[in-house]
Structure formats: C-alpha cells, structure tokens
Specification:
This protein is an all-alpha fold. The chain has 16 helices and no strands. Keywords: Membrane, Transmembrane, Transmembrane helix.
C-alpha cells in the first residue's frame, strides 16, 4: 500500500510539473494540438507515449546515477564538457519557462480577477518563495492536493462540452496547416516538456530510488497528462475559432458555466501555474547551489527576480515564441535519452563530481 501511495504521489508530481501555465490555461493545447483540427487526438496519443516512456527513463537513470541535479544526468548523456554546456542552455530555457509561468499568473489576475498584471506577478513570487522553504516535501504535498482537483474539474468540463451540439468539432474540424508541422508538433511538445521536467524528475527519482514505484508513477503521470490533453482539446475544439481570442482560453470556457464555477476554475488554473513554478524554481536552485555553494534563499530570490523582469513581455507573446523554439532545442536531448539502454543492460557509470 505504501508503494502504491508513493507511486500515486510520483504520478501527481509528474502531472503537476507538466501542467503549468501554458497547459492549464489552454494556450499550450491550442498551440501544439487543437489548431491541427481532427489530427489533434492522434498527435496527443503519440505525445502521451513519449511521456510514459521517457518520464520513466529520466527517473530511473536519476536513481541509478544518484544524481543531485539535472546536470549530472546531462553529463552522463552528453559527456562531461558537452553536458555542462547543455545544462547551461537548459538553465536559460528553464528561466524562460518560469517567466512564462509568472506571466501566466499575471494574465490570470488581470483578465479574470480585475487586478493589475504586476500584482499577479508579485503575489505569485512571494508565495513561491515562502513555499520553497519546505523543499521537496512541499512540492509532493501541494501536487497531491491540486492535481486531483484539476483532473476532476477537467472531467466536469468535458461532460459539459459533450452536452453541447457543437461538441463533435474535435472530430470533424479540418486541418489547414502543413502536415509536417502537425506531425512534428507532438515531438516538440514532448521533448520540450520532458527536458524541462528534468529539474523535478531527476531529484524526485534520486529521492525515491525504488524502480517499481518510479515506473508505476511514470505510467500514471504520463497517461494522466494524455487524458488531460484530450479533455482540453475537446473543450477548445468545440469553441474554435472564437475561444482563441482569450489569453487564458480555459478561463473563458469556465466563464460560460456560471460565476461560481468560473472562480473555482480560475483558482485551479492559478494553482497549476503555481505548482509548476515552484517545482522548476526548486530544481534550478539545486542546480545553481551545486555550482556556487551560495545560500538557496539568495539563489531563489535572484531567479524569481529574473523571471519577474522577463515576465514584463507578457504571457501570450512569451509562450507562442519561446515554447516552439525550446521544443526544437530539446529534440537532441530526447533523441539521446531514448537511445540510452543502460537501464536494461548494465548500471551506468556516475558522472564525475562537479568541480
């Protein structure tokens, strides 16, 4: 029972790490899947397979390597020198992703709470800093609470959508974009999200260690992500193209369902943004602390301030520009880790300790 409970926690953290600002708001689903019309569900299934397979490999490798941060995993995959440079690049990418998370919170405050964008940024930064003082236990706890609520509400949203006469749009809507762009999309989406999830999955795998728990958690998390993608795609497809005008499309859908449901959903979107931001900043802090030996609270403060500055560019422009570009950069990482067979053949050699 304890193994199963831990597996569920691992799966929920996996989901909570991927389901961030872009996903929970509906922007990511629209960018990578919904705009490709009736091909969307097939692209989501392909992406789900990658989440299960590569998510398990990342955590199992981290456990075998006893990796303290994602740099240890990258050194194993790419070699000592190249791995160090890949980690530098991922540091920049993760900062960009966290800026998107923070900008998503700001947009949520301005679009749905009638508060200023800057208020959203500052409140989210402060709450993130306070929670990070509790470490990995806080990340496990908050995802155990938030992710089931998000899954439940997404299920309700799907049921409501299916009652709508235009719900069949997700099957019949045509794809007017390039087939090459469509079939590249799930690879970009999976590569980007999995490489970014390293910041959490590596210390999580290293902390849990049990391969059965980690494999089971990867299956639960990967399938959960896929089902939530399908649910979001169905809800958005039924309301295209009008829903595309919103910065937070899922919030626009929730508004149709009444005031109370709208406020609940806005709260859940914020919590999903918040959990991903907390998890990523935690992983970045571990990475920088291993290199600099500086105080984790100082590093966390600096990281949040950099995200605050980048967040001034706005949520929509940041997501639509950075995410596809980061997905292309992550394809090489996805290729290397998918080829690694050490888990089934022999124990990998741990990387040299950082100098």
């Amino acid at each position: 029972m304890k193994q199963w409970a831990t597996s569920i926690q691992v799966g929920l953290v996996f989901i909570g790490t991927v389901v961030g600002a872009g996903f929970a708001s509906g922007r990511e689903v629209m960018q990578f899947f919904t705009r490709f019309g009736h091909w969307g569900p097939y692209l989501i299934i392909l992406s789900t397979l990658f989440f299960v397979w590569i998510g398990a490999k990342v955590m199992l490798l981290a456990a075998q390597l006893q990796a303290k941060s994602y740099e240890d995993l990258n050194k194993y995959l790419f070699g000592e020198q190249v791995g160090r440079w890949v980690s530098h690049l991922m540091l920049i990418v993760l900062l960009g992703v966290n800026a998107v998370m923070l900008a998503g919170a700001g947009s949520l405050f301005s679009e749905h709470l009638n508060l200023s964008y800057q208020t959203g940024l500052i409140v989210t930064m402060f709450a993130c800093f306070l929670l990070l003082r509790k470490g990995m236990n806080a990340i496990l706890t908050i995802n155990t609470f938030v992710v089931p609520l998000m899954i439940g509400f997404t299920t309700f949203l799907v049921i409501e959508t299916l009652r709508n006469p235009i719900s069949s749009n997700w099957i019949s809507s045509p794809n007017e974009l390039s087939p090459w762009a469509a079939w590249l999309s799930p690879f970009l989406y999976a590569a980007f999200n999995l490489s970014m999830s390293q910041a959490v999955l590596v210390p999580l795998g290293s902390a849990i260690k049990d391969p059965i728990v980690l494999k089971r958690g990867a299956w639960m998390g990967g399938i959960g992500i896929g089902l939530m993608l399908l649910a979001g795609h169905l809800a958005l497809s039924a309301r295209m193209p009008g829903i595309a005008q919103f910065e937070i499309p899922m919030g626009g859908i929730a508004r149709e369902l009444g005031a109370w449901l709208h406020w609940i959903f806005v709260f859940l979107i914020f919590m999903e943004i918040f959990t991903t931001l907390v998890a990523d900043i935690y992983g970045l802090t571990l990475q920088l602390q291993e290199r600099t030996k500086a105080s984790p609270w100082l590093l966390t403060s600096i990281l949040l301030f950099i995200c605050f500055l980048a967040g001034q560019l706005g949520f929509g422009p940041l997501l639509s520009t950075l995410y596809p570009m980061f997905g292309l950069l992550s394809l090489g990482w996805l290729f290397l880790i998918s080829r690694d067979r050490s888990r089934s053949t022999s124990q990998p050699t741990p990387p040299n300790p950082p100098t």
